[in-house]
């Protein structure tokens, strides 16, 4: 007999079906006993004999044959009268570390992460990763339709891209190498190598010394780079277009998952764009909140987002015109105000989810800028070389996949939006 997925039981024309999954719940009501079986697609109720369940334990994997009966009270409006259940994956535990079948997960996040193979079985927890999967899919579909090519760049690299000290070192055949913080140099290189428009969904590594709710040491970066642009606003338009497409897609494909988290996504996003200096001024004048030079801090991001929501009814804001001193050496300075760059951040519900901008594409200007930053152009050999052969004006951005998921679902900690998080303390599972 062919297996029927739980979500297809109601619609199938078969009277008798074979379902497979895990023992989600056993309800012994005295006169009648129910077993809830859970598979990837949902939960179905089986009416069972007491004898059939006496050796069953929660979370064992089982297969069951049952006859279909419509029942409004059953989950999904249909139930199965059991014609036989067998265990196909035994249980080896004394006591489950936590309940998988309660809607509200009571175990601490740390414990859920320790027992990831169990915590992910909870439909509400797995819903996070259904959303995440659709984000990746929407990113690909949206960009491919606009003639972007998907690329895969190396994650073992020889030099820093983002500057700073947050690099993991790797012993590479007795040479020192690093784990990539960002595909920045390679995505720019590929624009010049004739691809013009590229994107990558790949891992990025940061040796983050702060174990906060929003930092991971390994995250997934949704990277974009495009050539022949006019300015950084074209790059922002692209990101805004993607986010509109994403929200539309999520509403169509994940209504159940969004509902589990009580999320209603807006129909149309028009993201306000504001110079950083203006945001700092608003924070100071309206909220008496001082900002660090050339940036706003985490608390400032939260306050500013609330202000933007009240003023523009939008959960997002692009901050523009970051100063040269706070941006990497590849950021394009504004020709009229050379102390400012043509770069931006995107803040979503109080959290930075993107950095992007126009890049320097002129070889001489880039080499001079590298020197200006106190770095040695010789250390950037292959990167600089790729600017020798007619590199077009270009720009791009990167979105942290886990941060975007976290904010879409209003989660509290980035680890909830990470299948198997890596951070200061966690290297397993
Ligand atoms: P940036 O360093 O700002 O920019 O990173 C881009 C986005 O990546 C995410 N992110 C992180 N997510 C989780 N944990 C971390 N430790 C972490 N660090 C960064 C954030 C952030 O906004 N090359 C540029 C992008 C570009 O200009 O195209 C870059 O990497 O969501």
UniProtKB/TrEMBL annotation:
GO molecular function: aspartate-tRNA ligase activity; aspartate-tRNA(Asn) ligase activity; ATP binding; catalytic activity, acting on a protein; RNA binding; transferase activity
Location relative to the cell: Cytoplasm
Positions of the Aminoacyl-transfer RNA synthetases class-II family profile domain: 129-429
SUPFAM superfamilies reported in the protein's UniProt record: Class II aaRS and biotin synthetases, Nucleic acid-binding proteins
Annotated segments matching region Aspartate: 184-187
Residues that coordinate or bind L-aspartate: 162, 206, 355, 359
Residues under site feature: Important for tRNA non-discrimination: 75
Predominant location category: cytoplasm
UniProt cross-references to InterPro entries, sorted A to Z: Aa-tRNA-synt_II (IPR004364), aa-tRNA-synth_II (IPR006195), aa-tRNA-synth_II/BPL/LPL (IPR045864), Asp-tRNA_synthase_2 (IPR004523), Asp/Asn-tRNA-synth_IIb (IPR002312), NA-bd_OB-fold (IPR012340), NA-bd_OB_tRNA (IPR004365)
Reactions performed catalytically: tRNA(Asx) + L-aspartate + ATP = L-aspartyl-tRNA(Asx) + AMP + diphosphate
Record: residues binding ATP: 206-208, 214-216, 352, 400-403
Family matches, as NCBIfam families: aspS_nondisc, PRK05159.1
The protein's assembly and partners: Homodimer.
Biological role: Aspartyl-tRNA synthetase with relaxed tRNA specificity since it is able to aspartylate not only its cognate tRNA(Asp) but also tRNA(Asn). Reaction proceeds in two steps: L-aspartate is first activated by ATP to form Asp-AMP and then transferred to the acceptor end of tRNA(Asp/Asn).
Protein name per UniProt: Aspartate--tRNA(Asp/Asn) ligase
Organism: Clostridium intestinale URNW
